[in-house]
Structure formats: C-alpha cells, structure tokens
Amino acid sequence: MKRMGMIFRAKANKALDRAEDPRETLDYSYQKQLELLQKVRRGVADVATSRKRLELQLNQLQSQSTKLEDQGRKALALGREDLAREALSRRAALQQQVTDLETQHQTLQGEEEKLTLAAQRLQAKVDAFRTKKETIKATYTAAQAQTRIGEAFSGISEEMGDVGLAIQRAEDKTAQLQARAGAIDELLASGALDDPTGMAKDDIAAELDRISGGTDVELELQRMKAELAGGGTPQQAIEGGDGSTQDQARTQHKFDKQ
Length: 258
Prior knowledge:
Oligomer: single chain
Low-confidence stretches: 241-246, 251-258
Pfam families: PspA_IM30
Number of helices: 7
Largest sheet: none
Protein name: Phage shock protein A (PspA) family protein
Coiled coil: 44-139
Shape: rod-shaped
Number of strands: 0
CATH topology of the largest domain: Helix Hairpins
Region (Disordered): 226-258
Number of domains: 2
Distance between the termini: 93 Å
Keywords: Coiled coil
C-alpha cells in the first residue's frame, strides 16, 4: 500500500508539474500581496477614524470643562460658594476623562504611524515584486518560445515525432506494396500464376504465335533481299527459298483461313 501511495503521489506530482504555469503562480502571488496591502490600508483608515473620533470627544470635553470653570467663577462672584464647588467638582471629573482620552489618542496616533509606515514598506515591496514578476514572465515566455522553435527544428517534440512516425509507416507500406506488385508481375510473366481474366494462352496458341512471328520476319527478310538484288517480288523470293520457309507459310495460310 505504501508503494502504491508513493507511485500515486509521484504521478500526481508529475501531472501537477506539467500543468503548472509559473506565470499564473506569479500573478496569483501578486494578487495576494495586493489584497494584503489593501487590508493594511484599511487598518490605517480605521485607526485614523478612531483617532479622529477621540479628538472630537476631547474637544467636547474641553469645551465643557471651560464652561464649568466659567460657571464656578460666576458663582463665587455672586457669593454662591456651594455652586462654585459643584462646578469645579464636575470640571475635575471631566478633566479625568480628558486625560484618559488623551492617553488613548496618543496610543492610536502611534499605531496609525506604525501602520502607515508598514503600508508604505509593503507598497514598495509590492511594486518591486510586480516589476520582477513581469521580468520573469517575459523571460519565461521567451524561453518557452525558443524551446518550441528548437524542438520544431530538431524534430524532438511530440507532434513532430508523431508526424515522423506517420511518414515512416507510409513509406514502409508503399515500399511493401511496390515489392508485392513487382513480384506479381514477374509471376504472371513466367506463367506461375493464372491470368485472372481467364484468357491465358495454351501451348498450341503460343506455338502458332511463334510461327506467325517467324513467318513475318522471313517475309520481310526476303523482301529486303529482293529489293537489294533489284528484281523479283517478295512472294517469288519466298517461292525460291528453302522448303521449310514455304511449309511455314502454308501452315500460317491454312490457320488464317480457319
């Protein structure tokens, strides 16, 4: 089972390696970095919003504190020390809130500065990665095109290999058919194979053809002799020839009548 699992993982890894495109991986990584940068920027905006809200609260509390201080002074001026004490007590409580809010404001301001600096650094890294990504993609595309051209010229690509095999099979089959056709022609010429048309000549017809062909040659030869001698006709030359030639002519004449 372990061996089967290892084989399966090896084949799956090989298939994934063939299917993987480095350019797509780089684009995906760049997209993830942009998403992270967007989150950091959103965090900076949230912290800045909280800081601004604290500043508004501080302004309100400071306004109330100033108002209570004025009320205390008026109360003392009117001889109402009790009212002045109450106003100052409320002002003291507000001052405690102001102190707490100022502390929170300083903390948020520090966080905002840190996040802003981090966002700037991340932005620089993303820009550098984008430049490097495009460079790698262009180099990979050029190398891929060069490899394909090289494979096409060398004939080592799968497509060219298949074409080469198809051409070789066609040439082998053509040579086999040519050899078979030549062998059949030789067998037909030698008489080892019967004529498929059923019109093969027997030995008598073959002999008659031979005699007829010989007579034609003898006639032409005697005619030429007569012309050279300057007298007589081809028929007279034949009649004056040997008996075998006359016999052959009579035999041919007899067969012609039949």
